[in-house]
Design goal:
The complex is a heterodimer of chains A (about 100) and B (about 575).
Chain A lengths: L7 H19 L3 H11 L4 H50 L3
Helix pairs in contact in A: 1-3, 2-3
Chain B lengths: L8 H6 L2 H27 L9 H54 L2 E3 L5 E3 L5 H8 L2 H44 L27 H9 L3 H10 L1 H4 L7 H36 L5 H32 L4 E7 L6 E6 L7 E6 L6 H25 L7 E7 L7 H4 L3 H19 L6 E7 L1 H10 L7 E5 L19 E4 L23 E3 L4 E2 L5 E2 L14 H10 L14 H9 L6
Parallel strand pairs in B: 5-6, 5-7, 7-8, 8-9, 9-10
Antiparallel strand pairs in B: 1-2, 3-4, 4-6, 11-12
Helix pairs in contact in B: 2-3, 3-5, 3-6, 5-6, 9-10, 10-11, 11-15, 13-14
The chains are: A mainly alpha (about 100), B alpha/beta (about 575).
Chain lengths: ~100, ~575
């Protein structure tokens, strides 16, 4: 594609939402639920499986929250860049004779 | 499915349904949050108006984020569903364990931490002799111990299955969560907490079946009835209410299947006859005769199913046995609530009775006997006690003189009938006053059953050609609680074909079949020949009803020795096979 179109405020809002949901995902009580399973069924093979699930959930929650936060930050950076470019263009065009 | 893991009793005792319920609540919260996150992400999707390479990259990353959220939500929901079932299952395990413990406590047994069942009475030599009392008493204790052992085994078996199934689910979701390219969960959480019955066969121990049922949660039981009615319809040790529901479902399915098969076959027959024989007349005739024979067989099966439906019709009827695929179909129908009644009678009819032809009549006879027993209780100021009566056609009732002359059918049927008796006790928290009733060849089947079962409190044998033993000590009924009725001019009752004439056995109580004035002053008619023992208004029916009601002191006694006995003594007994 040769060019682009963008609504800068929409991108900035999307970035804001991304930051917000990243915070919500980070506190999901999934690993705690797995911990309850470990405590509820002591001695069984399900206990080891629950511990493994807890670890997998914990890692996935952290990774997803970080990815959401990074994506949100990238959207904000893009919005800023588009805005700066727009402002630069306006300034440049305003200076023409 | 992976092999079921071994679980020990100390583990099961420490398992906590409440903590699993807490995990369910946490996962509910997690799923709710993830749904909110998913909605927010959808609203924040990079707009389509944003075009260009950066826009494409942003949308791809956004969709990857959304997929991750979906995967977390799906995994949490699957585990949540499995844990909810597991919480129910753990509650069921504890209920089953409590039932086994109550049985042990009430009978002087202990269940050790490792699950070993010990006889506290036998381990105390000073009181062992007094407690055991007799060989019969020792046998009964052994049976109780076996039941406790079976129940503990079923708890451990179900616990192992639960542990295995839940571990499989958790491992699957863990792998799905950690994997680079998540795939849908492969273990349905719905399978958790519904272990298959022991052995998969109705021939298993009654206590095993009762123990298995005792560890299922209410939700799991409903699923078994709805999804696997064939597991429990004929399984002794399962409560009558569940067997009835399962068998009615199976009977409905059978009736619908027969209707469909008949319709399809009739259409083929109509098409064949409409087309006419054509040039290949012999082939046409063969095809027509084949269709006619198959139609006749289907109609016969439909008549049998209809007879069972008619016999089981009514709110107070319970369909406790349904096995219609045999050459000689089997069924049992109760009138009254077998699970709660104070007094339960099981009537086993004899020679010539079939499910298709006679079940409704036998059920009516048992129902009338139940009413008579209730009336006797009423007249004795015990109207608060309830009665249930079962018509049991659960064996290959001989249909011809060749079959009826051998004890084979009675021996095989006796084993099944013994399990049925024991199952009534095992399915209830408290045993009823249980009476075994056998007529004609059915009394021989009853006799064999009573040599194996341990929970029968009273027995009445009428029109009996023998009970398979000459020694009443072989019969597991308390001394003084085996009654015999022999009507005048009943030739079968004097045959003594399968053991001594029952009314001559030491220890039996002869009950009258003659016209008599009953304790309440009413007149009762005599019964004669072979088929009037349970006719309403007769002394014999009253005597059987009073026995069923647990009122032996109100019976009219009579040894029933008549001309047939005199002739038999003169001619000598013919040995049965």
């Amino acid at each position: 594609m040769d060019g682009f179109e963008v609504t800068v405020e929409v991108l900035r809002d999307a970035g804001g939402v991304g930051s917000s949901v990243a915070g919500e995902v980070a506190v999901l009580p999934l690993a705690q639920a797995a911990g309850e399973i470990v405590d509820a069924l002591p001695g069984g093979t399900a206990t080891a499986a629950a511990a493994a699930l807890g670890a997998a959930w914990r890692a996935r929650v952290v990774a997803t929250a970080e990815a959401l936060a990074q994506h949100a930050a990238a959207l904000r950076v893009a919005a800023d860049a588009y805005g700066a470019a727009e402002r630069g263009a306006i300034t440049a065009l305003a200076g023409e004779p | 499915m992976a092999a079921v893991t071994a679980v020990v009793l100390t583990q099961v005792r420490r398992w906590s349904a409440a903590r699993l319920a807490v995990a369910v609540v946490r996962l509910d919260d997690a799923v709710r949050l993830l749904v909110e996150v998913d909605g927010a992400l959808a609203r924040a999707r990079p707009p389509d108006s944003w075009r260009g390479a950066a826009a494409d990259a942003a949308r791809a990353e956004h969709e990857r984020m959304a997929r991750q959220v979906h995967r977390l939500a799906a995994g949490a929901a699957a585990v949540r569903s499995g844990l909810a079932a597991a919480a129910d299952a753990v509650a069921g395990l504890h209920a089953g364990l409590a039932a086994a413990q109550e049985l042990a406590d009430g009978n002087g047994f202990t269940i050790a931490a490792d699950g070993v069942v010990a006889d506290a009475v036998a381990d105390a030599p000073a009181v062992a002799v007094a407690a055991a009392g007799s060989a019969a008493g020792a046998g009964a204790r052994s049976a109780v111990r076996a039941e406790i052992v079976d129940r503990v085994e079923q708890v451990l078996r179900a616990a192992g299955a639960l542990d295995t199934e839940l571990a499989a689910l958790l491992h699957t979701i863990a792998a799905d969560t950690a994997g680079p390219d998540p795939s849908p969960p492969v273990v349905p959480a719905a399978a958790i907490g519904v272990p298959a019955p022991p052995g998969g066969s109705v021939a298993d121990s009654v206590a095993d079946s009762a123990g298995w049922w005792s560890v299922l949660s209410a939700a799991a039981r409903q699923r078994v009835v709805a999804e696997h009615p064939e597991w429990i319809g004929n399984r002794d040790g399962i409560p009558a209410v569940a067997r009835n529901e399962a068998n009615r479902r199976l009977l409905g399915e059978r009736a619908a299947g027969l209707d469909a098969d008949l319709g399809a076959l009739q259409a083929r027959y109509d098409a064949l006859t409409a087309a006419g024989p054509g040039p290949m007349e012999s082939a046409w005739l063969a095809a027509r005769d084949d269709l006619l024979a198959r139609l006749a067989e289907l109609r016969r099966r439909q008549e049998v199913a209809d007879a069972v439906g008619a016999a089981a019709a009514g709110a107070d009827r319970r369909l406790l046995l349904l096995d219609l695929d045999r050459d000689r179909p089997r069924a049992a129908v109760a009138t009254g609530d077998v699970d709660t009644a104070d007094h339960v009678a099981v009537l086993t009819p004899g020679f010539g009775n079939t499910v298709g032809g006679d079940l409704p009549g036998v059920v009516e006879t048992a129902g009338a006997l139940r009413d008579r027993s209730a009336a006797v209780l009423d007249g004795s100021g015990r109207s608060g006690e309830s009665v249930a009566a079962v018509a049991w056609l659960g064996y290959d009732v001989p249909g011809g003189p060749l079959n009826v002359s051998t004890a084979d059918a009675a021996r095989c049927g006796g084993a099944d009938l013994a399990r049925f008796y024991d199952g009534i006790d095992a399915a209830r928290p408290t045993d009823p006053h249980l009476t075994a009733l056998g007529h004609s060849y059915g009394s021989l089947t009853t006799g064999y059953a009573l040599q194996q079962a341990h929970g029968v409190d009273d027995a009445v044998l009428f029109g009996s050609p023998g009970i398979g033993t000459d020694d009443l000590g072989d019969v597991h009924v308390p001394a003084g609680h085996t009654g015999v009725v022999e009507a005048p001019w009943d030739p079968v009752a004097d045959l003594g074909w399968f053991g001594d004439d029952p009314n001559r056995l030491d220890g039996v109580t002869g009950l009258s079949a003659r016209a008599a004035t009953l304790p309440d002053g009413a007149a009762a008619a005599g019964s004669v020949l072979h088929s009037q023992y349970l006719t309403p208004g007769t002394t014999s029916q009253y005597n059987v009803a009073a026995t069923v009601a647990g009122l032996p002191g109100q019976r009219i006694l009579d040894p029933g020795v008549g001309m047939g006995d005199v002739l038999r003594d003169a001619l000598g007994r013919r040995p049965g096979s």
